[in-house]
């Protein structure tokens, strides 16, 4: 899915591409993405809680974001921050309300990345172990930090980066949407530059593919559509053990 737009509210052209794939091991896809250049946002959500519950959690997050953002981009950074925070808060309530109605889905939730663009820059909302990267001037930077047990052990110096990549508990998430009445949300913000390229992805990509390989694809694959397809392909070539979802957002 690809779409692009130029709006007076943004003062630049925004091109968005999204792809999702079940992978090679799982039978269902609990990931979801949404792209809306007219409203100036995109997202990736990775459901957890098993089959129907995980898929429902990620869908509710996407629906909450669409309701909060509406048809137009945020007018500035303050409004973008507010919309991002409101989207996570609304999604959290929707998921918890769903669990109250369907107790058999207790434990469901989702990790989520939400990128909102405004005329001066970007705002990112982050919760869980999905990630947002920025590719700028040939260099790839991970903007978010995983809310995971392995990342916590890495920060405390208990394991090495190489051990973290292969840790048996690397999928244990410490924060997620819908599992706590008041979860802590990471909110990041900054300016954008022409040719900036943002990558939002589920851990089905980053568990399989190194940052170096990600950077190589973004530098050489050509169009956004080709980049997205190549990212999915290399994750599957590496084993495709989880659902794989990518969204690319390019400023021009």
Can you describe this structure?
The protein has 252 residues and is α+β, with helices and mostly antiparallel strands. It has one domain (2-143, 178-251): Phosphatase 2c, domain 1 (4-Layer Sandwich), CATH 3.60.40. The protein is built from 7 helices and 11 strands. It has helices at 51-69, 77-101, 149-155, 161-165, 203-206, 211-220, 224-237, and strands at 2-6, 13-21, 31-36, 41-48, 109-118, 121-127, 131-136, 139-142, 186-191, 197-201, 244-251. The strands form 2 sheets. A 6-stranded antiparallel sheet has the order 1-2-11-10-7-8. A 5-stranded antiparallel sheet has the order 3-4-5-6-9. Strand 7 (131-136) and strand 8 (139-142) form a beta hairpin. The two termini are 19 Å apart.
Radius of gyration: 17 Å
| CATH C-level | Alpha Beta
Q: Can you tell me the CATH architecture?
A: 4-Layer Sandwich
Instruction: State which percent range the strand residues make up.
Output: 25-35%
Spans of at least 5 consecutive residues whose pLDDT stays below 50 are none
Number of helices: 7
Shape: globular
| Biggest pleated-sheet summary | 6 strands, antiparallel
Percentage of helical residues?
25-40%
Please render the helix and strand layout as text:
Blueprint: E1 2-6, E2 13-21, E3 31-36, E4 41-48, H1 51-69, H2 77-101, E5 109-118, E6 121-127, E7 131-136, E8 139-142, H3 149-155, H4 161-165, E9 186-191, E10 197-201, H5 203-206, H6 211-220, H7 224-237, E11 244-251
Antiparallel strand pairs: 1-2, 2-11, 3-4, 4-5, 5-6, 6-9, 7-8, 7-10, 10-11
Helix pairs in contact: 1-2, 6-7
């Amino acid at each position: 899915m690809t779409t692009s737009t130029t709006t007076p509210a943004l003062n630049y052209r925004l091109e968005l591409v999204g792809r999702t794939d079940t992978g090679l091991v799982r039978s269902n896809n609990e990931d979801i993405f949404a792209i809306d250049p007219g409203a100036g946002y995109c997202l990736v959500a990775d459901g957890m809680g098993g089959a129907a519950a995980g898929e429902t959690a990620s869908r509710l997050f996407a629906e909450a974001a669409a309701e909060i953002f509406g048809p137009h981009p945020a007018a500035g950074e303050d409004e973008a921050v507010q919309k991002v925070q409101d989207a996570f808060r609304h999604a959290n309530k929707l998921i918890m309300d769903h669990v109250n109605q369907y107790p058999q889905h207790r434990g469901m939730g989702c990790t989520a990345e939400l990128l909102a663009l405004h005329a001066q820059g970007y705002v990112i909302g982050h919760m869980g172990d999905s990630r947002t990267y920025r590719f700028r001037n040939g260099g790839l930077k991970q903007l978010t930090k995983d809310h995971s047990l392995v990342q916590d052990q890495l920060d405390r110096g208990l394991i090495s980066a190489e051990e973290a990549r292969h840790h048996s508990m690397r999928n244990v998430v410490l924060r997620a949407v819908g599992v706590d009445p008041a979860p802590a949300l990471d909110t990041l913000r900054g300016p954008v530059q022409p040719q900036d390229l943002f990558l939002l992805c589920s851990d089905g990509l980053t568990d399989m593919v190194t940052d170096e390989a990600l950077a190589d694809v973004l530098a050489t694959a050509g169009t956004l559509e080709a980049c997205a397809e190549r990212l999915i392909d290399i994750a599957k070539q590496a084993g495709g053990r989880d659902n794989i979802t990518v969204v690319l957002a390019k400023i021009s």
